[in-house]
Amino acid sequence: xxxxxxxIKGVKDILPAEIxxxxxxxxxxxxxxxxxxxxxxxxxxxxxxxxFTRSIGETTDIVExxxxxxxxxxxxxxxxxPEGTASVVRxxxxxNLYNPSSVAKLYYMxxxxxxxxxxxxxxxxxxxxxxEVFGTENPEIDADVIGMLMxxxxxxxxxxxxxxxxxxxxxxxxxxxxxxxxxxLKGKRSLLCEDCQKRFERNPLRIFDCKSTNCHExxxxxxxxxxxxxxxxxxxxxxxxxxxxxxxxxYAKNPKLVRGLDYYTKTAFEIVSKGLGSQNAIxxxxxxxxxxxxxxxxxxxxxxxxxGMDRTAQLIQPSALSLHASAPHVFIAALGERADLKAFExxxxxxxxxxxxxxxxxxxxxxxxxxxxxxxxxxxxLIIGDKELDKGKAILRDMSSAQQDEADMxxxxxxxxxxxxxx
Length: 423
Ligand code: AMP
Prior knowledge:
By secondary structure, the protein is of the alpha+beta class. It has 2 domains: about 15-175 and about 230-320, Bira Bifunctional Protein, Domain 2 (BirA Bifunctional Protein, domain 2, 2-Layer Sandwich); about 330-420, 3-Layer(aba) Sandwich (Rossmann fold), CATH 3.40.50. It has 16 helices and 16 strands. The chain has helices at about 15-35, 50-55, 60-65, 85-95, 140-155, 175-185, 195-200, 215-220, 230-245, 290-295, 310-315, 320, 335-350, 365-375, 385-390, 410-420; strands at about 40, 45-50, 70, 75-80, 105-115, 125-135, 160-165, 250-255, 265-275, 280-285, 300-310, 330-335, 355-360, 380-385, 395-400, 405-410. It has an 8-stranded mixed sheet. The longest helix has 20 residues, at about 15-35. Adenosine monophosphate binds near residues 122, 284, 306 and 310.
């Protein structure tokens, strides 16, 4: 008996019917990010496990429960990348990408892997587009890069997004806040879920991120980082917000926003969509001023973000895709053997001249070929039968108005190029 295989739980195929959205996201990212001076970097799919454990943090959910870690044949512990920043930092230090006279700006895109409980909007292989800037602490960069991200979503036609922003402080002020939070939660420890009981001592800020209602209740009225930020962090945050104001970018301050990765210092943000269910964050990021040093590089402040492509794809409307449409430009309907041969040649001539074409390979009736043409969403169909062949002509049918004109076969490339330019 043959076995019918299925993709692994939480892992999916991206089928041709959806691929346009994905190409649209990728193409638009390249266009927008390159306008802001970013260059692409392609990082490996797997790394030594320490690259992730050291940067993301030993006590985060990602490292504790979600990484796909395995030993290779020489016994080294390797991990499929759960995110991109750690690898970009590793590459930045390894290849001395420091740019003393200016900042370095890099972007990446591709699959990430986390062994999470699969649900709508949460997959085990998912896709991110990310960007990182190295070499400045200037809050202008925080605002500029968030601005780039908002422009990107605008270009995708996304609406009803909310930028939530916080500053998580630094090594100087965050420990004080951590202590105050532990002190506050001490008496409520029994209310916390099993995971948060563990987080309580090891990583109490993460309790803010827990979805359990009891944990949510327990943190009500708790101290927040707002009252603990040092002067430096306070002024950095205020400046970031004022630069966002200058860019006309609306935001909501969320003092309980923490991220699932421990490397963030100062600015942390998320973009949430009102059009999604409980997994509503479509991008997140922030500042990580210590990470390059931890990877053995020189002190290099940095800022970055990652966009969740799977969730973003869900929000893209077909109308936003029209400019990027990959529907064939022309359908060729051939009637009879001679016409079929002509269509075979003609479609290739059109393609050589940059015009996409589709046709029917089944020798179907004209009616059914026109139905197919409509399904492809073409604006024009060229109809060829024996009569047209004898005259050296084709019938050019405008699919929306059903108007038909004769077109000279000799001049067909020229005619179609002109018509398609008019669209
Ligand atoms: P993070 O790397 O955790 O900061 O996530 C950045 C973005 O990636 C999130 O806002 C999500 O949109 C997306 N994301 C993270 N984890 C998953 C997942 N398991 N499935 C789908 N998207 C994800």
